[in-house]
């Protein structure tokens, strides 16, 4: 089942296209890693797809009304904004906003979704702590939990694991992979190509606003693509422990 | 904590209304005053209670609730605890509108001219603030925008004062700049109440959207919040509340700053709960201040706006200090 389809999506800043005619289709069960150098258009692609930026071309998400879209797709922005010292539980409960009618109080189902998200992100015991008093990495996990609590078929996340410690980076990617296996679809931008290669079912490589390559990790992380887009060389093997990817050096 | 807060605030406000009704230079006994208010026995005391003290207490509730609610709503939208209608020039611009109505004689010719002009002044100010502070509303740009608008409104008010045709108009204009609830009638209540009710109806349902904005504009929009509609309701609601409050009471600052600041820890910092709490808290605070101006200097007609500024300005300094420490 296709959960996201983009048809020649173009987002311009001034006259210059930041995302140039991106065509992409994401189905249930996929964990798509969106990779590319800084400024390649990863964030803009996701924001355009959600209808948060004016765009040309078609996105299946912008066909939906705001509340219906919020029930179908969750968005985790890169900026980790928590404006007020609300408790962790209150913050995660914000993910339930699209599921509540005007004036409706959270039901047991909402509370259960929040508890699941808190447990998935290893935040048990933090529920009553003010979210603003946590460390940066802990705040990042709280915000991921908020997106998970939204309980949508599709999750778009912009660099969700940046700034997390290695254990929580791996745990988060494993949690994402488990969600994908359970029938959701995720599009996750990230810079750690090793984690991307290991956990994602598919990689989309962006370069100067265009989709440069799209396919299984080993088909995308070729020496040619890495040289053309990142200007690096790397070592990639498939061993008994899965795909191992190690960037080596910057090419002249 | 939150569960006990609302009954507590309602009781506090009701008690302060009672004290406000029983405070004044006329020196009637409490039993005599209240029975006169309810039954109309005793001509002089009934007149004092129904024509002087009742409007004063009612206006304190209406003005305080409107200003407290506006402050909480602006802070929630801009995600900034320093946003306050008086501080960022909304009250000043509303007062300017009122002054222009007085100066040009429009207020004398047409009864609704004064509140409508105050309202228009408030709308222009809120629009300018949102335009200047930008979508993200950082502290610095917000305060700078507020200073600019306050300065402009102040200068234009001074110009009106400067060009005022006679000393009576001058005295009236000076009065708008200080803010007071003394010598108001029920006419003032009926003038302000519809606009304020409209403002409350616009602002109180914004809670869920403001909660979602805790995560920033992008995340809120992706949660299904229609930001353009929210912003429009906020502008109109704050303008209706502050415009109407200023039209009947003059410029009263700091209510929208002090009240949400005091109540925020008691509501778990949730903007949606802070809205009604700040409305009740604002009513209690203005009642308290209006009782205080009658008790502190009973003969000198201490102005309410002056007292609020003396109480509020140090707290504002404290907040700036705290914001700076948090940013460091």
Automatic annotation (TrEMBL), chain A:
<keyword id="KW-1278">Translocase</keyword>
<dbReference type="InterPro" id="IPR017871">
    <property type="entry name" value="ABC_transporter-like_CS"/>
</dbReference>
<keyword id="KW-0813">Transport</keyword>
<dbReference type="InterPro" id="IPR003439">
    <property type="entry name" value="ABC_transporter-like_ATP-bd"/>
</dbReference>
<dbReference type="Pfam" id="PF00005">
    <property type="entry name" value="ABC_tran"/>
</dbReference>
<feature type="domain" description="ABC transporter">
    <location>
        <begin position="4"/>
        <end position="233"/>
    </location>
</feature>
<keyword id="KW-0067">ATP-binding</keyword>
<dbReference type="InterPro" id="IPR003593">
    <property type="entry name" value="AAA+_ATPase"/>
</dbReference>
<protein>
    <submittedName>
        <fullName>ABC transporter ATP-binding protein</fullName>
    </submittedName>
</protein>
<dbReference type="GO" id="GO:0005524">
    <property type="term" value="F:ATP binding"/>
</dbReference>
<comment type="function">
    <text>Part of the ABC transporter complex HmuTUV involved in hemin import. Responsible for energy coupling to the transport system.</text>
</comment>
<dbReference type="InterPro" id="IPR027417">
    <property type="entry name" value="P-loop_NTPase"/>
</dbReference>
<dbReference type="GO" id="GO:0016887">
    <property type="term" value="F:ATP hydrolysis activity"/>
</dbReference>
<keyword id="KW-0547">Nucleotide-binding</keyword>
TrEMBL record, chain B:
<dbReference type="GO" id="GO:0033214">
    <property type="term" value="P:siderophore-iron import into cell"/>
</dbReference>
<feature type="transmembrane region" description="Helical">
    <location>
        <begin position="304"/>
        <end position="321"/>
    </location>
</feature>
<keyword id="KW-0472">Membrane</keyword>
<feature type="transmembrane region" description="Helical">
    <location>
        <begin position="187"/>
        <end position="206"/>
    </location>
</feature>
<keyword id="KW-1133">Transmembrane helix</keyword>
<keyword id="KW-1003">Cell membrane</keyword>
<feature type="transmembrane region" description="Helical">
    <location>
        <begin position="112"/>
        <end position="133"/>
    </location>
</feature>
<feature type="transmembrane region" description="Helical">
    <location>
        <begin position="140"/>
        <end position="161"/>
    </location>
</feature>
<dbReference type="Pfam" id="PF01032">
    <property type="entry name" value="FecCD"/>
</dbReference>
<feature type="transmembrane region" description="Helical">
    <location>
        <begin position="279"/>
        <end position="297"/>
    </location>
</feature>
<feature type="transmembrane region" description="Helical">
    <location>
        <begin position="86"/>
        <end position="106"/>
    </location>
</feature>
<feature type="transmembrane region" description="Helical">
    <location>
        <begin position="56"/>
        <end position="74"/>
    </location>
</feature>
<comment type="similarity">
    <text>Belongs to the binding-protein-dependent transport system permease family. FecCD subfamily.</text>
</comment>
<dbReference type="GO" id="GO:0005886">
    <property type="term" value="C:plasma membrane"/>
</dbReference>
<dbReference type="InterPro" id="IPR000522">
    <property type="entry name" value="ABC_transptr_permease_BtuC"/>
</dbReference>
<protein>
    <submittedName>
        <fullName>Iron ABC transporter permease</fullName>
    </submittedName>
</protein>
<keyword id="KW-0813">Transport</keyword>
<dbReference type="GO" id="GO:0022857">
    <property type="term" value="F:transmembrane transporter activity"/>
</dbReference>
<keyword id="KW-0812">Transmembrane</keyword>
<feature type="transmembrane region" description="Helical">
    <location>
        <begin position="234"/>
        <end position="259"/>
    </location>
</feature>
<dbReference type="InterPro" id="IPR037294">
    <property type="entry name" value="ABC_BtuC-like"/>
</dbReference>
